[in-house]
Amino acid sequence: MVLAALILILSTALFFFYLQGTLQTILRRQFDREYFLSIVKANRLEFPAVREALEEMNAPFDSLQLQMSLKCDFRALTYLLRNAANVNQRYSLEERFVMLCFRLVFVSLITRRWLRLREKPAILKLTAILQYFANVVGKRINSVRFGNLSAFDYLLSL
């Protein structure tokens, strides 16, 4: 009985370790330029400001406010992923996986808040996921052309 419980615990830990490694591999994907900047500017997303505030200052922060802004950014970006320059209007398998990871990290952030554990690493992970989504949306939009001007160039001119 003890051996079965030990195997179950070890298997669960290895599964989550595998998920974490897969997520890190996806988030390390290099884009030829920073597409997310135009998407952030055009849609008034807040995750870059959240990341800068957390990385630069060790001042206390309002966790509920950050959670709400990250959740709103997530909803906006998932909408854009599905509808902006996406012929199939479906999420890819990779996008679904990263969305699942976002939700798991978001739940862990809420749990960390209740338990008064370190919230900063979870928030930084959420901003990294949002930056990845914004880069994917920006790359898709950049592939669409309107005459001589690409959609990416149009967004930069705003």
How would you describe the overall organization of this protein?
With 158 residues, the protein is mostly helical. It has one domain. It contains 7 helices and 2 strands. It has a two-stranded antiparallel sheet with strand order 1-2. A hairpin with a 2-residue loop joins strand 1 (145-146) and strand 2 (149-150). The longest helix has 26 residues, at 2-27. It starts with a helix and ends with a helix. The mean pLDDT is 85.
Shape: globular
Determine the structural class based on helices, strands and strand pairing.
mainly alpha
Q: Determine the fraction of residues in helical runs and give it as a percent range.
A: over 70%
Q: What does the main sheet amount to?
A: 2 strands, antiparallel
Brief digest:
By secondary structure, this protein is mostly helical. Helix content is 75%, strand content 3%. The protein has a two-stranded antiparallel sheet with strand order 1-2.
Question: Which helices and strands occur, and which strands form pairs?
Answer:
Layout: H1 2-27, H2 36-43, H3 47-56, H4 63-83, H5 93-115, H6 120-142, E1 145-146, E2 149-150, H7 151-157
Antiparallel strand pairs: 1-2
Helix pairs in contact: 1-5, 2-6, 3-6, 4-6, 5-6
